[in-house]
Write a structure and sequence with these properties.
The complex is a heterodimer of chains A (about 325) and B (about 650). Chain A is an alpha+beta fold and about 325 residues long. Chain A has eight helices and 17 strands. In chain A, about 35% of the residues lie in helices and about 30% in strands. Chain A is elongated, with a radius of gyration of 29 Å. Chain B is elongated and about 135 Å long. The chains are: A alpha+beta (about 325), B alpha+beta (about 650). Chains A and B meet through helix 3, helix 4, strand 6 and strand 7 of A and helix 5, helix 6, helix 7 and helix 19 of B.
């Protein structure tokens, strides 16, 4: 119920959680943002204390009182220590590499204890997907946490709210805090495996040949260029000669392929269209072809290489 | 929240061998004192359960089924029932709790179970205090508390090194201590008990009993336990005046002396006497009503009355250590009169017992001119009879007094006083047995007289016309050393004495004196901290008539301050910020105020360049700050001089 209330009233939740999402840069969990409640074990502990206190009164046990009160103090100190295990933790995010829809986006969070004490047993949990991990943050160290968040749909996937929780040191209290860092991951459309379209008009004969022979027909070596895919580097030859060489395949120069949304049969919806195009981009890149992409309002001239492939896929993701 | 398992939930985290071993170690320390009191089979069973669980952990075997655990529990409970004929009550309850600690371990799989076991350990610590609350116990249990807490910390951080967990546990307890102290002092104390206690709640308290038969005082006298302590204002009385009056025994059935019917009277302070002593007594609990006073009490302590034979009795049984103030007079003017009823009681003797003693008394009676002469003859008889004072007197038959007087001639004070009173009554002189303590040891450190159970003594009182009840100590007559120099030297060397009473261990006694002075403070200030003492302390602190409301308010005020202090500690700046970085941030803030905010991705060089273009008036300063910052932060060496310059420039810009 409270959850729904918070969802409907973002201003209220922003006030409650003490931040306005998304948060840019490094987020420091100030005390204001660390919440704490007793765990079930905490309540059990309180019950035990009650019994001990009554027993001490009943039997007039001075040392019973002393122990009961020491344990009560332990609870109090434990509360402060538990909050401290999270407080002032600095959370920052790293770049998330693009993924295809259906894969898990790997968000990287960096937890910086920024202190002289270690912070064991911190749970990092992605609220929406419940991807979670328990980490120890040693004193003065930065710990990288990779959260695998399932990417269901293409486009930008924001990280969303992440909960950090700890019960250290005595497990009687649960302290937690929310962060919503400004991190997003590009999700490409889910690629569909399908045969490449025929090459476009101006190089019809050549491109057909290239298409059939493109991927494996080794044609020779040439000097490495920065745009070459690492898959095509001739590592064996490099090892022999100290010179970066790229394998050249037959048809590399010849094929020029236009991946055009309009080539697709009618009746496909936009997602299916994009999926097919994404599959073509991958196939064309694998095949070593020069390919261009044409979408409604987007035209990427033919080229090849990882950067080109990424540009095409990004255009498809955000179309 | 999603329904996925929560990795920090204790029920989902299996307990590892290290934490388990740690917990078992802590529990062993906790149950060690119980184990000495428990029947051997129960101790063995509990230890086996601990060992069994560890064996499982080491071999990674699956735990036994719940049915087996229940079976062991049933067997244990049956055993306790056979031993005690009940499973309720204090002792059986605690023993079962000890057994359950083993059973709980045996089914401990997750952290949740382990935490419950740890809480059980905390509980068992308190049960130890039901038996003893000495400083040694407190120290041992503090160690146990520390270990259990370290185990709890370990459960929360299974990967952390033990040493770090120990440090955390120590830090937690250190932070807990001030709050604990405040709670101890300020928590409104209620006088217990809240409800009826089990039958055996006060078992095991030692002290004088309301009867005396041959052998029971001498067995008490072999105990080193403390009966009470007395702190005198000014000088303490000499040993031969230290008669601490206890129950007075009137009735004799041929073997056992007992109190008989008794009633309370209005207190009439005695007068005259040879000296006055004011003192405070800290009496150990003995589960009886009587209070001990140096003869003869001239005041009545709070919440107490006096019986017609001069015995101080408390309104409630002494079940906790209590303190009371007293004034005593030495040899006051006797009352001189007593009721005919008590005269009759003081002459009553059972028929057909001890014919030889009766005959001897009749012979003295016939020969003596008055009662005082009979008393003198009896004392002379004892003095010259070569009686042996021993803690291990031979067993006596039906005519116990005849046998002691004429055959065995070995006895303890109970034999002497019993025989003397019998002789007096047989001679027609009213007499009664008084039990109590005689002597006590003056502690050289704090000048407190410590009276032990081994000082238990019995003497006699005879009623002489015109003089009233007069104390006569037949033991003193027969064995003069007992009164002047104490039990230790009065008993022949062959008899076994409590270790500390042997005269050759003088230096050891010095150590003991020091120790006991500390123990006395412990008893008075820690264990004896009760509602009265709390009120006393509060009025010392300026809180007159502090009721529970004032105490609670003070308590919460202190706890609030305490929590704030802890929070301040946890908020304390963790790392001193780099001065260069600090100056740079101030610089960024200043420029941001003028509308040039640094973008998160912007490096210092780009930012300075952009700011210089945007703010041409401060162009040179901005660029120089940018360069200096880069040099200081990324350059080979940062000089203190450079840092100072940077700060100055940032300030001036």
């Amino acid at each position: 119920m409270i959850g729904r209330l918070l969802e409907r009233n973002p201003r209220f939740s922003n006030w409650l959680y003490g931040f306005v999402p998304p948060e840019r840069g490094t987020v420091v969990l100030v005390h204001r943002r660390v919440y704490i409640v007793p765990t079930r074990m905490g309540w059990l502990f309180a019950g035990t204390l009650g019994v001990l206190l009554i027993g001490s009164i009943n039997y007039s046990l001075s040392l019973g009182f002393a122990l009961t009160f020491l344990l009560a103090g332990l609870g109090l100190a434990g509360m402060v220590h538990t909050a401290r295990n999270l407080a002032r933790l600095a959370v920052s995010v790293g770049r998330a590499e693009p993924v295809f829809a259906g894969e898990a986006a790997q968000f990287r969070l960096y937890l910086d204890g920024r202190g002289t004490f270690d912070r064991p047993s911190i749970l990092v949990r992605h609220q929406a997907s419940a991807a979670q991990l328990v980490v120890d943050v040693p004193a003065g160290a930065v710990v990288e946490v990779a959260l695998g968040v399932p990417a269901e749909r293409r486009g930008w996937l924001p990280l969303g709210r992440v909960m950090l929780e700890t019960r250290f040191p005595i497990g009687l209290f649960r302290a937690w805090s929310y962060v919503e860092p400004d991190a997003r991951c590009l999700v490409y459309p889910r690629p569909e495996r399908s045969p490449l379209p025929p090459a476009s008009g101006q190089a019809a004969a050549g491109s057909l040949r290239a298409q059939t022979a493109g991927s494996d027909d080794f044609a020779g070596l040439r000097g490495y260029q920065r745009s070459d895919s690492p898959r095509h580097i001739a590592w064996k030859a490099v090892a022999r000669s100290d010179e970066m060489l790229t394998k050249q395949f037959a048809g590399d120069a010849a094929a020029e392929l236009w991946l055009d949304a309009r080539l697709l049969p009618g009746g496909l919806n936009i997602e299916q269209t994009l999926s097919r195009l994404a599959g073509w981009v991958l196939a064309a890149e694998r095949g070593g072809a020069h390919y261009g992409l044409r979408l409604a309002g987007v035209e990427i001239p033919p080229a090849r290489g990882d950067a080109h492939r990424a540009a095409c896929l990004q255009a498809l993701a955000l179309a | 929240m999603t329904g996925l398992p929560h990795p920090l939930a204790p029920e989902l985290r299996p307990v590892n061998t290290r934490d388990l071993a740690w917990l078992v170690g802590a529990l062993l320390l906790v149950i060690a004192p119980h184990a000495q009191r428990a029947p051997w089979w129960l101790t063995l069973l509990t230890l086996c359960l601990y060992g069994w669980r560890l064996y499982y952990a080491l071999n990674r075997a699956p735990l036994p089924s719940r049915l087996l655990v229940l079976g062991v529990a049933a067997v244990g409970m049956l055993g306790v029932w056979i031993e005690f004929r009940t499973i309720f009550g204090r002792q059986p309850g605690i023993l079962l709790l000890m057994l359950f600690s083993g059973l709980k371990l045996l089914e401990t799989r997750s952290h949740r179970d382990a935490v419950v076991s740890a809480f059980l350990g905390y509980f068992l610590i308190v049960t130890n205090f039901l038996y003893t609350q000495t400083m040694q116990t407190a120290a041992a249990m503090t160690v146990a508390l520390f270990l259990i807490t370290a185990a709890l910390v370990g459960f929360s951080a299974p990967q952390r090194p033990v040493r770090a967990n120990l440090r955390t546990a120590g830090l937690l307890l250190a932070h807990a201590a001030p709050a604990a102290l405040a709670l101890f002092v300020l928590f409104p104390r209620v006088p217990g008990p809240l409800w009826g206690l089990p039958q055996d709640a006060y078992a095991g308290m030692t002290g004088l009993s309301d009867t005396m038969s041959p052998g029971n005082l001498s067995s008490l006298a072999q105990s080193d336990a403390i009966a009470f302590r007395a702190e005198f204002q000014g000088a303490a009385p000499p040993p031969q005046q230290r008669y601490w009056r206890g129950p007075v025994l009137w009735e004799f059935d041929g073997r056992t002396w007992s109190i008989g019917p008794n009633f309370l009277v209005e207190f009439a302070p005695p007068e005259g006497g040879r000296g006055t002593y004011r003192y405070e007594v800290v009496l150990e609990p003995h589960n009886r009503h009587w209070l001990f006073a140096l003869e003869t009490a001239a005041t009545l302590p709070e919440r107490s009355r006096i019986t017609y034979d001069g015995q101080l009795v408390s309104n409630n049984p002494v079940r906790a250590r209590i303190r009371y103030n007293l004034t005593s007079l030495i040899a006051p003017r006797p009352a001189g009169k007593d009721t005919p009823g008590s005269m009759r009681r003081a002459l009553r003797l059972p028929q057909d017992f001890n014919p030889r003693a009766t005959a001897l008394a009749a012979q003295w009676r016939a020969a003596a001119a008055d009662d005082a002469e009979v008393v003198a003859r009896a004392l002379a008889f004892l003095r010259e009879g070569r009686y042996v004072y021993t803690l291990e007197p031979p067993l006596l038959g039906r005519h116990s007094i005849d046998e002691f007087l004429f055959v065995t001639k070995e006895g303890f004070c109970e034999h002497f006083s019993s025989a003397f009173v019998f002789l007096m009554r047989a001679a027609g002189i009213p007499a009664r047995v008084v039990t109590g303590y005689q002597g006590g040891e003056l502690n050289s450190v704090d000048s407190i007289i410590t009276v032990r159970q081994s000082d238990a003594h019995a003497w006699a009182e005879t009623f002489l016309p015109g003089r009233g009840w007069v104390r006569v100590d037949p033991t003193g007559a027969a064995v003069p050393g007992r009164i002047d120099i104490g039990l230790a030297r009065a008993v022949p060397q062959t008899t076994s004495l409590p270790l500390m009473m042997r005269p050759e261990l003088e230096w050891l006694r010095g150590v003991r004196d020091r120790w006991e002075a500390t123990a006395h403070k412990w008893n008075v200030w820690v264990l004896g901290y009760n509602p009265e003492r709390q009120r006393e302390l509060m009025s010392l602190a300026g809180l007159r008539d502090a009721d529970w409301r004032a105490l609670t308010a003070a308590l919460f005020a202190f706890l609030g301050v305490m929590t704030l202090a802890l929070l301040a500690w946890s908020l304390k700046r963790l790392v001193r910020p780099d001065p260069v970085q600090k100056a740079w941030r101030a610089f960024c803030r200043k420029l941001a105020a003028r509308g040039v905010e640094r973008a998160p991705h912007e490096g210092p060089r780009d930012y300075a360049a952009r700011a210089a273009t945007a703010l041409p008036a401060a162009r040179r300063g901005i660029l120089r700050i940018g360069e200096l910052y880069i040099a200081l932060r990324y350059g080979a060496q940062a000089s203190a001089d450079g840092v100072a310059r940077l700060r100055r420039m940032v300030r001036e810009i």
